[in-house]
């Protein structure tokens, strides 16, 4: 079973005017688990997800590893090994990003097929099944410019799930969807994750929906340090604190 484990990870983003500091003292997720990351806008949720997806490298960490059931892979150093990183990403990860960019010159079906091709797992029937569950099966031959924002978001969800990833990362996957369609999207994500026993990490502002689907909550808390410097810390949120959020 897949498992990711992070210990004492730090990341700083800085430019001339500002500095943003993120700390992840401990975070782990295993196959079959669902974790939601909540926190105010700009608190670092996407930064955490980009680190998990190995799009952004941490500055330092005690441990950042993935156990795929056969070997223990050190994710803290894999970024230097470009082909190993590309292989791992393609084989294991499905990332629904906040912007969900699609290739504009390809149809929805072709966008989904690209992900399957890169992962060496072509499966048109599965792509069509996902599109049906997401309510976009009539749009498979449309190009992104011909879709609404919510339809594009669902196309991006289908693409990220189409190669049967064992780690599903979603950054506000229902941000552009009405409540009924949002529920349909989460149901599809969790159904697909169930097919492979995948781990699911989801950033969301929809506490109610995440609670309903039994996600464990983590929050990014902004702590003020001496002077004006702040640090944003990811930590588990216990059930009583969750009531306040709801
Ligand atoms: N190069 C940079 N230098 C300094 N700060 C940066 C830099 N790039 C991003 N940031 C800051 O990092 C913080 C975290 O950004 P991130 O996108 O992770 O937030 P978020 O929690 O996902 O927000 P949202 O809910 O709006 O999507 C933001 O406050 C952003 O302004
Ligand atoms: Mg974000």
List keywords for this structure.
246 residues; alpha/beta; Rossmann fold; 10-stranded mixed beta sheet; 36% helix; 28% strand; globular; binds adenosine-5'-triphosphate; binds magnesium ion; translocase; ATP-binding
Which helices and strands, and how do they pair?
Blueprint: E1 3-14, E2 19-30, E3 34-38, H1 45-52, E4 60-67, E5 72-74, H2 75-78, H3 82-92, E6 93-96, H4 108-118, H5 124-134, H6 149-161, E7 167-171, H7 179-196, E8 199-203, H8 207-212, E9 216-224, E10 230-236, H9 239-245
Parallel strand pairs: 2-10, 3-8, 3-9, 6-7, 7-8
Antiparallel strand pairs: 1-2, 1-4, 4-5, 9-10
Adenosine-5'-triphosphate is lined by residues 13-15, 18, 20, 39, 41-47, 98.
Detailed description of the structure:
The chain has helices at residues 45-52, 75-78, 82-92, 108-118, 124-134, 149-161, 179-196, 207-212, 239-245, and strands at residues 3-14, 19-30, 34-38, 60-67, 72-74, 93-96, 167-171, 199-203, 216-224, 230-236. The protein contains nine helices and ten strands. Helix 4 packs parallel to helix 6 (149-161) and helix 5 packs antiparallel against helix 6 (149-161). The protein has a single domain, classed as 3-Layer(aba) Sandwich (Rossmann fold). It is an alpha/beta fold. Strand 4 and strand 5 form a beta hairpin. Strands 5-4-1-2-10-9-3-8-7-6 form a ten-stranded mixed beta sheet, sandwiched between helices. The mean pLDDT is 92. Magnesium ion (MG) is lined by residues 45-46, 98, 171.
């Amino acid at each position: 079973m897949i498992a990711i484990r992070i210990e004492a990870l730090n990341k700083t983003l800085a430019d001339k005017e500002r500095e943003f500091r993120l700390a992840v003292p401990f975070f782990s997720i295993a196959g079959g688990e669902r974790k939601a990351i909540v926190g105010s806008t700009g608190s670092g949720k996407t930064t955490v997800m980009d680190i998990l997806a190995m799009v952004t490298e941490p500055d330092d960490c005690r441990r950042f590893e993935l156990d795929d059931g056969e070997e223990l892979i050190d994710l803290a150093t894999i970024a230097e090994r470009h082909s190993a990183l590309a292989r791992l990403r393609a084989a294991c990860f499905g990332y629904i990003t906040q912007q969900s960019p699609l290739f504009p010159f390809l149809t929805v079906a072709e966008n989904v097929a690209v992900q399957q091709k890169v992962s060496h797992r072509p499966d048109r029937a599965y792509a069509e099944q996902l599109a049906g569950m997401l309510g976009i099966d009539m749009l498979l031959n449309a190009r992104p410019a011909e879709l609404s924002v919510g339809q594009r978001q669902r196309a991006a969800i289908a693409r990220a799930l189409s190669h049967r990833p064992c780690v599903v990362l979603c950054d506000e996957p229902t941000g552009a969807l009405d409540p009924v369609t949002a529920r349909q999207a989460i149901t599809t994500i969790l159904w697909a994750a169930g097919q492979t026993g995948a781990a699911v990490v989801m950033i969301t502002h929809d506490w109610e929906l995440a609670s309903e689907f039994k996600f464990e909550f983590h929050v990014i808390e902004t702590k003020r340090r001496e002077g004006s410097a702040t640090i944003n810390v990811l930590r588990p949120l216990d059930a009583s604190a969750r009531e306040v959020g709801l």
